[in-house]
Amino acid sequence: MKQKTPFTAGKFTIGLLQMRIGKDPDANLKKAVSMIEKGARDGADVLCLPELFRSEYFCQSEDIKYFGFAETLPGPSTQAISKVAKRHKVAVVVPLFEKRAMGVYHNTAAVIDADGELMGVYRKMHIPDDPAFYEKFYFTPGDLGYKSFRTKRGEIGTLICWDQWYPEAARLTALKGASVLFYPTAIGWHPHEKAEHGKAQFESWQTIQRGHAVANGVYVAAVNRVGLERQSESAAGIEFWGQSFVADPQGKLIATASVDKEEVLLAEVDAGRIEYIRQNWPFLRDRRIDSYQGITKRYDDEP
């Protein structure tokens, strides 16, 4: 029986590119390339950009003009980043607004390997529809399933923002063999809610992802943007809360970024640490896979 062998890279360094996004997509791409170069110089092997990094977060409203931000794969973003990835021998997770066909668009993460090749894509599976997060208007739900990518630097999984609240997505990606789950993200506070709910909202976001790290014995890397983005002077906008972080397989925070500054956040991923934690906390061993049939129901309301 053919079986996928575990990745044996040992250790590799990941870089989270926490960015402030402006109104000019070309300027955002140029900044991303510059930050990738900095991350590579600082020792990163695998880098990840924030969700939809080429534009301000347009899903604050429903307007067909924003479909103009979408691009094909391959396209301008992947072509530019493939060149810098190859030059610096780094793998890069590139989250973008994908135009798959006329009228079919996805919120996508393209994975470019250290040789500059586009090795695959993940399409966001869970699509929110909340005030100022009107993503269902723009994005078709992903249809490629959950994936792990064996880059030349390490084995990684990619999920996107709203996916981070779902333990099923983390589990299935970890079972594919990923050593680290990347969550490129665009999450922040509604300014009028921040004083009352802001602390609890942030802590919930961080806690659920640290839980994924513990439950699956993997590293989790959440990559956010920073800054206030609003589509008009009269709009409240969204204050993106930054605070990108990396949690190890025990849920310990090993790297954290600021609330409001652009930065390249580095952390080491160690396969030996994953194995040690899984030996001591054998959650994957003790799963009762014979008892989970109900997980595919929307809600089990049978008597």
Description:
This protein has 303 residues and is α/β, with parallel strands linked by helices. It has one domain: 4-Layer Sandwich (Nitrilase/N-carbamoyl-D-aminoacid amidohydrolase). Helices cover 24% and strands 28% of the residues. The protein contains 5 helices and 17 strands. Strands 1, 2, 3, 4, 5, 11, 13, 14 and 17 form a 9-stranded mixed beta sheet that branches. Strands 8-9-10-12-15-16 form a 6-stranded mixed beta sheet, covered by helices on one side. It has a two-stranded antiparallel ribbon with strand order 6-7. Strand 9, helix 3 (167-175) and strand 10 form a beta-alpha-beta unit. Helix 3 packs parallel to helix 4. The termini are far apart.
Class from helix and strand fractions? alpha/beta
Radius of gyration: 19 Å
Helicity range of the residues? Answer: 10-25%
Q: Which CATH class?
A: Alpha Beta
**Low-confidence runs of at least 5 consecutive residues:** none
Distance between the termini: 42 Å
Compute the average pLDDT. 96
Can you tell me the CATH architecture? 4-Layer Sandwich
Helix-strand pattern: EHEHEEEEEEEHEEHEEEEEEH
Percentage beta strand? 25-35%
**Largest sheet features:** 9 strands, mixed
Q: Total number of β-strand segments?
A: 17
CATH superfamily: Carbon-nitrogen hydrolase
- Tell me the number of helical segments per DSSP (H or I, 4 or more residues long): 5
CATH topology: Nitrilase/N-carbamoyl-D-aminoacid amidohydrolase
Inertia-based shape: globular
